[in-house]
Write a structure and sequence with these properties.
8 helices
């Protein structure tokens, strides 16, 4: 049971990405469907979104629903929520309407970050909608520096709902410290380096997506 090891226990997920962005701003961070984003661009765009979300009241442990198709915007959105200090609740747009409605109600969401094509499907009377595509001109008017949120390793990073196969789906809360511990451990064994390419195919509503998306970025 001697499992103690050194890892950046004082850092959050997005802060590890910020370190890479500062060290390698011109390096390609993401490739999707023929489009690329450098670390610098990814960091700036997610910072603008974070400042926008903070202006709407997002703060540490505040829940933000997230329903976006796989795209460059998907990663910008995830990092933007984390940088704002928020905790994202991923909602797969392919889910049945009743499943989506249950998750929105059960998690008591007040803000939902999505794309225009899903707004009608996600509409709820108490939820503010932010469209990462059609609202981008407004979002891009925000500052692009790393925001200050007060979020720390023990704050929530994301909540993933279980399948519900044995009853009602349950929201599992994961703090930054746990995710960082996992990512750094996987970076050591089996390991990942600059020459490796990782194809991220898992829905973000399934926990392994955290490994697929964030480990290559950090």
């Amino acid at each position: 049971n001697d499992t103690a090891t050194d890892y950046p226990a004082d850092k959050c997920i997005h802060q590890l990405v910020e370190i890479q962005a500062a060290q390698n701003p011109e390096a390609v961070a993401l490739i999707f469907d023929g489009e690329e984003l450098t670390y610098g661009d990814l960091n700036r765009r997610s910072n603008q979104l974070a400042h926008h979300l903070q202006s709407m009241g997002v703060e540490p442990d505040g829940l933000v629903g997230f329903c976006v198709e796989r795209s460059l915007d998907m990663v910008v959105g995830l990092l933007g929520i984390l940088k704002a200090g928020g905790c994202y609740v991923p909602i797969d747009p392919a889910y049945p309407n009743d499943r989506i409605a249950y998750m929105v109600e059960a998690s008591n969401l007040s803000i939902l970050l999505t794309q225009e094509q899903f707004q009608e499907k996600l509409a709820a009377p108490t939820v503010q909608m932010v469209s990462i595509d059609t609202d981008w001109d407004t979002i891009a008017s925000q500052r692009d520096d790393n925001p200050t949120s007060g979020v720390g390793p023990d704050n929530l990073s994301y909540i993933i709902y279980t399948s519900g196969s044995t009853g009602k789906p349950k929201g599992v809360q994961i703090c930054h410290r746990s995710a960082v511990n996992f990512l750094v451990s996987m970076g050591q064994q089996p390991g990942l380096n600059q020459q490796d390419t990782l194809l991220a195919v898992t829905t973000i509503s399934f926990d392994i997506a955290v490994l697929e998306l964030y480990l290559p970025l950090i």
